[in-house]
């Protein structure tokens, strides 16, 4: 069990596949070898497609993702993870995920201390959001409320990467925190009617994000909140999902 009493994005921010009905969209992923050391893994989109969503997952105790980033030309994505605290002698892996689609998309990036926001140009909106830190921890990766960019929060210097473009009927759902006092908890948010999932995001306050995944017509965030003795604490969990017609 991971033990941490401050907000920490630890295991994953995994982007679900774009609309199942879109046969021109493909999800790709790659997993590193299992070792006990920091590592980076990358994956490329098929020819003729670009990255519209990114995500990552890491296994093992006292490990954390510090970088989820699409390439500048949006043809690939990579995830970096490191050990924190006393680390671990056990082997662990990191997985990168990318959702790819044909079209022209824009990458908007910006850095800041503890938080950073990047705006999408013109009428474009955020399809997916990625982020990185210079060695601390990430606590939030999510689109802005109006989908006109992305927001990343964490410790140290952080950088947000908003993947911008257009899709019909884009809307952001979720964003309401739920306070819990159990060691682990999950919170879901769903697209509505005939809307389809484009990407997922998440945030924690006082706990650890264990997973952010698609769940049927929406997204589910799972987290853990314990103190140094492994006892449950009061913490919050917030899911986000970007939906499209």
Automatic annotation (TrEMBL):
Task: Supply the name of the protein.
Answer: Neocarzinostatin family protein
Which keywords, in A-to-Z order, does the entry hold?
Signal
Please tell me whether the keyword Signal is annotated for this protein: yes
Signal sequence region: 1-21
Organism this protein belongs to:
Lentzea waywayandensis
Q: Which domain of life is it from?
A: Bacteria
Q: Could you read off the lineage of the organism from its UniProt record?
A: Bacteria, Bacillati, Actinomycetota, Actinomycetes, Pseudonocardiales
């Amino acid at each position: 069990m991971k033990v941490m009493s401050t907000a920490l994005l630890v295991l994953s921010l995994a982007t679900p596949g774009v609309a199942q009905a879109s046969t021109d969209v493909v999800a790709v992923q790659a997993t590193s070898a299992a070792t006990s050391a920091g590592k980076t893994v990358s994956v490329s989109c098929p020819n003729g497609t670009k990255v519209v969503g990114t995500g990552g997952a890491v296994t093992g105790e006292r490990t954390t993702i510090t970088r989820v980033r699409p390439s500048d030309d949006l043809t690939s994505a990579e995830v970096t993870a490191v050990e924190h605290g006393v680390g671990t002698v056990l082997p662990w892996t990191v997985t990168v995920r990318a959702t790819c689609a044909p079209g022209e998309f824009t990458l908007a990036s910006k850095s800041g201390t503890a938080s950073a926001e990047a705006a999408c140009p013109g009428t474009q909106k955020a399809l997916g959001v990625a982020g990185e830190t210079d060695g601390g921890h990430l606590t939030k990766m999510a689109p802005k409320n109006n989908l006109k960019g992305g927001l990343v929060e964490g410790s140290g210097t952080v950088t947000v990467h908003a993947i911008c473009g257009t899709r019909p009927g884009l809307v952001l759902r979720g964003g309401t925190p739920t306070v819990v006092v159990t060691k682990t908890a999950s919170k879901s948010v769903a697209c509505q009617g005939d809307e389809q999932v484009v990407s997922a995001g998440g945030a924690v306050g006082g706990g650890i994000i264990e997973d952010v995944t698609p769940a049927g017509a929406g997204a589910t965030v799972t987290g853990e909140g314990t103190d140094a003795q492994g006892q449950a604490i009061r913490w919050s969990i917030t899911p986000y999902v970007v939906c499209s017609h």
